[in-house]
Amino acid sequence: MIIPFRKQLAFCYHLLKFPLQFQDYSLSKRISIMLDYYKLYRKKRLLMSEYYEYEFEKCTKEFRENFLGWAEQGYYLKTLNPVKYYTLARNKYLAHLCLEKAGIPMPKLLGYYNPYQTHANEDFAKQLLKLQEEKKIPFVIKATESSHGEGVYVIESVTSDDNDIYLNLINGKKIGLSEVLSHKDELIVESLIKQTKQFSDFNQTSVNTVRFMTTLYPNGEAKVIATFMKIGRNGAYVDNAGAGGNIDANVDVETGEINKVITFRGFRNTSKTECHPDSGMKLEGIIIENWEAIKAKVISYQKAFPFVKAAGWDIAITDEGPIVIEVNDSWDRTGQLFVQRGWKNEIKDCFKAWNKIGYSPIVERFINNYTKKELQTISKTFK
After folding, report:
1. Helices 27-44 and 5-17: angle between axes, nearest 10 degrees
2. Between the CA of residue 8 and those of 12, 13, 256, what are the distances in Å?
3. Are strands 109-113 and 187-191 parallel, antiparallel or unpaired?
4. pLDDT tens digits, residue range 88-142?
5. Are 228 and 210 in contact (CB under 8 A)?
6. What domains can you pick out in the chain, each with its CATH number?
7. By the number of CB atoms within 10 A of the CB, which of 39, 93, 109, 231 ranks highest?
8. Which residues contact residue 16 at a Cβ distance below 8 angstroms, ignoring those fewer than 6 apart?
């Protein structure tokens, strides 16, 4: 692959600056880290940010080998999760329509807001007041294109005066509907999930979820390749790591045992824990109830949604069974930190199975600023 001189120069500049992030190490160790990163870059196109965030200088050989970085992930997912199906997973409104049609349970869809429709604001205000009148509360408002728990409001009640409609949040705060709608986001309204007692006891203010990483093969077989928990902090709506300070843990795929529990405050800022820091509830070693039945259901969800062949399912556990909060087609890599192992081999195996039968959807996109011509060369490494 011929890289333009300017691009080579920029890479060398950033490579020389890279060791400066590791101030706690000696000069010789920092030089060693720089050389180590360069080898990994040549081998698997690892990003500098990935090396730093996942503390590759401390990782085991197994983790380093099997870590699925952004460049490799992009290469495999362009086949497994074609761009033409992105909207089905990424737009929460369309995901509702598609998943429910496939018989996959989700929170009940109570309303929808499109800011560019005529009289959209007035109609949405009427929807919310009707939900209050019919006592379909509490409920949740979400931006359809949001991620990492952003743009989520848990509404306990709706009130109004001559100036505005007011959303009274479950944490005691109040926000005007005009402020929410001023962002011009497409919104959905969902029923609030009632999780099982076991999951509510972990942290009552957030819906605590299990992320299931699944793969689908050409013969119709679906596999669960990794599972991990995301548990919110007291007073938080969401359990997402993007919210910061939450609790994350590996879940043993076979047994449903919660282990390797950490408090995640950000990359290179985690600490081991056995109990939830707010509730005091023990987490380490706890077995998730009805695990086999939950796992079987999620496998059936993957089979019913073949558009995304390597999916990340955020699952809430209710007395009625597992409910899908959302399905992710371009999941982040952070889960490998929580399960403390990489999942490249599992994703690569699924990719090879589809590649073997000649499945090659048309892809019109760029990955990590690599051009298509560069990716053709990179693919020789990843294969």
Report:
1. 140
2. 6, 9, 47
3. antiparallel
4. 999 999 999 999 999 999 999 999 999 999 999 999 999 999 999 999 989 999 9
5. yes
6. 83-90+195-344 (3.30.470.20), 109-191 (3.30.1490)
7. 231
8. 34
